[in-house]
Amino acid sequence: MNARAALFDLYGDHLRSRGGRASVAALVRLLAPLDIAAPAVRTAISRMVRQGWLAPVRLPAGPGYAVTPKCVSRLDETALRIYRAGRITWSERWHMIVLEPVRERPKRERLRADLAFLGYAPLSEATWIGPRPSPELNTLLAAEQVRADRFEAVLDGDPRELVARAWDLAGIGRAYESWLAQAAELIDGLPDDAPDDRVFAVRSRLVHGWRNFLFRDPGLPAELLPPGWPGEKARAYFEQEAARLLPAAAAFVDRTLADL
């Protein structure tokens, strides 16, 4: 886990509900159980400030960083997808985006990664579809200064065939099975009497591994997924263990923030 990803997870999973800010000293201490060194934390903070995710603030414990409105939007949308409540519903309409040509390769690559994170898949270089509009789409397109036409579309055909063409469901399913095996091994290695900082580290790795599926799995409704979809079993395990480990992990965060 790199420092930038760990900071996103930390702010989203713990600090967002505690005012969305923390001192640099607290951030360094909170990421220490993940074996992330202080220089790496500071470098990642600087990068996130340049990208508009964090803003410097002065706190009683010293210099610190708070989430920006852009970051709040991303964290809240991410939390809704990570800790999904209830069954996914679908209007049977696709959200379609047709992008203007993007000549710069770095911008194209950023757009592809960000659109995939928001749940879209390409039908061609310029045309993307998703099962629902993303609340973050406008922010993304404005930041990249890319114009796009948007449509609510109804497919004339079998939507499962479209899904099979747009997303690698077999590959995503295998990834869920692999993640579940690794997650069970991670959890089984945690003693019942483990200290709070170790519980925090294990839970952080669990959440980070699960969060990575947001880049691959668009959150399709059950009627568009194969029977026995491995993602459901993996989700049930994640939700169970994330909830079980949360009190001890939260205690470590609260104690670290209070000690500074």
TrEMBL record:
InterPro entries in UniProt: PaaX-like_central, PaaX-like_N, PaaX_C, PaaX_trns_reg, WH-like_DNA-bd_sf
Domain annotation Transcriptional repressor PaaX-like N-terminal: ranges: 3-59
Transcriptional repressor PaaX-like central Cas2-like domain span: 89-147
Origin: domain of life: Bacteria
Residues covered by the Transcriptional repressor PaaX-like C-terminal domain: 167-254
Single GO BP term: DNA-templated transcription
PANTHER family assigned to the protein according to its UniProt record, in alphabetical order: PHENYLACETIC ACID REGULATOR-RELATED TRANSCRIPTIONAL REPRESSOR (PTHR30319), TRANSCRIPTIONAL REPRESSOR PAAX (PTHR30319:SF1)
Protein name: Phenylacetic acid degradation operon negative regulatory protein
